[in-house]
Amino acid sequence: MAKPVLVIGNKNYSSWSLRPWLLLKQFGIAFDEVRIPLFTEQMPELMAEHTPCNKVPVLKDDDFAVWDSLAICEYINQHFLVGKGWPEDPRLMSLGRSAVAEMHSSFPDLRHELPMNVRRRYDGVSLSAAAQKDSDRIISLWQQLLAHSNGPWLLGQFSIADAFYAPVASRFMTYNIELPSELKAYCQQVLALEAYQEWLSAAKAETEVIAEEEVEL
Fold it and tell me: Which backbone phi and psi does 111 adopt, to 5 degrees?
């Protein structure tokens, strides 16, 4: 059987691509990847080979394609992980799904002011009131999940929730955002994953620079 193919964007910048990529890697699912440089003249033509939506990520499984990072992660969970992407406890699973849905649809100011940029490290970042509100909500949410699950991951064992919040952990470390000690340790745990380190190494080797994703203090 042919391996699934994950179409992703630049590893330095594409938070949406990181989520399903990390889920596949962390659970040891073999796959091929196609990397398409974002916001280039060639991007529409290259994307047209995989999906009409012109966005990454896309998962191709034989002649079937699914797009959108949340839909992809759910497909991976159902077809490759036999449900292991979520905890068995129904209440914990529901909390996790709620947290992932919130990540998928919320926190626009944090996303805008702190774009994912794994190659960089900043000090002295000043957040707007709206971005600070987003950050505070994520902190509260993580604390809630860890209290329910007893850690060390958001839902006890590594899950779709951790894959979804990995770009936030990366952002918090990139921009040196002040966190409670247990959440700073959680972020460091995410970034220490062998899979994340593989992603980081590839991101550092990329040569493309997306100017609007580079914060200047």
Answer: -60, -45
